[in-house]
Specification:
- A hairpin with a 2-residue loop joins strand 1 (about 45-50) and strand 2 (about 55-60).
- This protein has a 5-stranded mixed beta sheet. A 4-stranded antiparallel beta sheet has the order 5-8-10-9, with helices on both faces.
- The model has no long low-confidence stretch (mean pLDDT about 95).
- The chain has about 350 residues and is α+β, with helices and mostly antiparallel strands.
- The protein folds into 2 domains: about 5-135, 3-Layer(aba) Sandwich (NADH Oxidase), CATH 3.40.109; about 150-320, NADH Oxidase, CATH 3.40.109.10.
- It is built from 9 helices and 11 strands.
Length: about 350
Amino acid sequence: MTAKNYEAWGVLESDYPRKGAVEEQLKFLLRYAILAPSGPNTQPWKFAINGSVISVFADLERSLPHVDPDNRTLFMSVGCAIANLVAAGKHFGFSTSSNYFPRGSENNLAAEVKFEPGGSSMSGGDLFPEITKRHTTKDRYENQMIEISILDDIKKCIDRPGFVLSYLCDKDSKSMMADLVSRAHQIQLAKKEFRQNLGEWLRNNWTGEPDGMPLYTFGVPDAVSLGFPVAFKEFDLSRAVIYRDSGLIHGCSCLGVLTTDQDDRPAWTLCGTLLENLLLKATSYGVSASFFSQPIGLPELRTELESSIGRGHPQLIFSLGRALPMRSTPRRPLEDVILESSS
């Protein structure tokens, strides 16, 4: 029997209400939107259905003031949910158009997605089947390289002007990035307010919570997971965190740095949409990702990374590799994230 906080992953394509009203069909599509990744699984989104339009809101009540003070990661997470929503819509025969920040960039309405019948999923480009398979790797990679042709195909998902994906696959680049991430951990985890803020989202391996990060995703044993969230908040565990992340960086097939020309809410949200398309495409090849946002959260290290990449504003560092399947993480019930209307 599936625990209630994991039931969202049991969504079945066959349950789609093909003969139902459009509002009922769009509500079904949201069951895939909420399976998007978010850091650190805060699921900071809300939705409103108005006829053939779904309004997607950023839920700033789920912000992390000491971990993500600009809400950059939060808006990227919302963008990931939009990508899943659009992929599901196309799969079920809708054509979609997305209007980002129709009320201005300071409004929490991140996008309005309009659905019209008559679309068709492209047999070779349908990312929908990967939504329920995608997972983030936080433990380790297997020792397998990814073919250049696959990396090139994955890179095609970053297909919008002003957004650039740079690959760093050589040993020196990995060492540089591991050093940058390590220094970020040392700075951030020395701050108790940072540890307290992030520690609120760590969960033991038997958690009944509908959000946050169960520690099995990090390879933490069940018994250790019981006391780990409290220990994390009270003590600087940067050495253990650095050891894990260094392994993910040196053990990956390739690193990616996603940069943008602009550095604001619309750019962050669009960045998340493109990222999720990339992650779904990677999943279709059996490739998983792990994320390292720590240096980007520190202005001095972000500037250093920007100088190394030489283009745009760095928004995300991630590694790509082949890994064993990971258990899914909890999800909030759909009813908790649907608003009555967008007005």
